[in-house]
Design goal:
globular; 2 domains; Phosphorylase Kinase, domain 1; alpha+beta; single chain
Length: 362
């Protein structure tokens, strides 16, 4: 691996001599390495080198073009902010195909920490600030010029249509295991899909969306715990900002794991929601539209139902998309997400009030 990483470094014209490398085990898709070079004067400089999993990311060049456009815009308009910096080869590309047709990229290493689970209100607020700042920095960027690298990724209407097509087919006979879940999703089908319909009809601005707004996709300063930069831009696409917000709070405000089998332990934590809103809305208060503001809570509900539908559809069709650790794992995930969605519905008015109060005080 040393020789391969050295070849990649030479192609990206990294100065100095490869000194050491370590495998970064966070993430389950790409192969990621921290490589360290010794510079001519003896100083050490580190980079992140990644081999992209092209079985998952079918159009890696489109992904890198999206990333280049977005990071270039942020660097040009916000030079004082830390922005992910991807290196280029001699022919001006921010990626490399090697002799084995493997796809590589190199970015600067940022010394930092991440949080897989957020319980500290200050960290939750800072996470919201980071994603809000990301959204705000790109508020004047035309998201429609980006490649839609995963078509209809967050088209809830189409996701639900696909689910109920598979329910009608019932080819594995598993519907009987999920009658209550199918019935509930059917009862909220219109409510959950209305935002994607409104987006298709031009009611929301086409934003640059991250599409994986989990807390561990923010790098934090080790000492101050302040956010440095948002990472993992592979799913950056045009979309609705309310879904980025919704997916973030769906993940952060759930009191249980995403596959918690005891749904009595699953509820939506309003104190965490308040903390995230404080950071996020403080950052986007000048760029968010009234339509976006009024639909943040519905975005959280809709994205939660969408994920539940995806888990359930995978269960009904043979568990071919999401990795499962035991029989019925996807059904357990479905029930967990539905429990969370039901609690969001119960607390809808309180959550809307928190949004309004936070904006008023931002």
């Amino acid at each position: 691996m040393y020789e391969k990483l050295n070849q990649v470094g030479e192609a990206f014209r990294l100065p100095g001599k490869l000194y050491a490398y370590d495998t970064i085990k966070n993430g389950n898709i790409n192969s990621t390495y921290k490589v360290t070079y010794r510079m001519e004067g003896g100083a050490l400089k580190s980079y992140v080198v990644q081999k992209i999993n092209t079985n998952v990311f079918k159009n890696p060049e489109d992904i890198m073009e999206n990333i280049d456009r977005v990071t270039s815009h942020m660097r040009e308009h916000y030079p004082e902010e830390v922005t992910l910096h991807f290196h280029h080869t001699a022919d001006g590309k921010n990626y490399l195909y090697d002799e084995d047709n493997s796809f590589w990229r190199v970015m600067n290493y940022v010394d930092s920490i991440t949080f897989d689970v957020c319980d500290d209100p200050a960290v939750i607020s800072a996470t919201g600030e980071a994603f809000g700042r990301f959204q705000n920095q790109l508020s004047d960027f035309d998201g429609s010029v980006l490649h839609e690298t995963i078509p209809d990724f967050h088209n809830t209407h189409k996701r639900l249509d696909r689910l109920f097509d598979d329910v009608a087919e019932n080819r594995l006979g598993r519907n009987q295991d999920a009658t209550e879940e199918i019935e509930f999703i059917s009862s909220v089908r219109y409510q959950a899909g209305v935002l994607s319909d409104r987006y298709a009809n031009g009611h929301f601005p086409v934003r640059v969306t991250h599409n994986d707004t989990k807390s561990n996709n923010v790098l934090f300063d080790r000492i101050t715990k302040r956010p440095i930069v948002v990472i993992d831009l592979d799913t950056v696409m045009p979309g609705m900002s309310v879904y980025d917000f919704g997916d973030a709070v769906r993940f952060i405000c759930n009191t249980a794991a995403e596959d918690e089998p005891d749904v009595r332990r699953v509820y939506f934590d309003t104190s965490k929601f308040r903390a995230f809103c404080h950071g996020y809305l403080g950052a986007v208060k000048h760029s968010i539209t009234p339509e976006e503001r009024d639909n943040l809570v519905l975005g959280a509900f809709s994205i939660t139902i969408e994920l539940a539908a995806r888990f359930l559809d995978d269960y009904l069709t043979g568990d071919t998309y999401f990795k499962v650790n035991y029989p019925g794992h996807n059904l357990v995930r479905t029930r967990c997400q539905l429990a969370l969605a039901k609690d969001i519905l119960r607390k809808k008015e309180e959550l809307k009030w928190i949004v309004e109060e936070t904006l008023d005080n931002a």
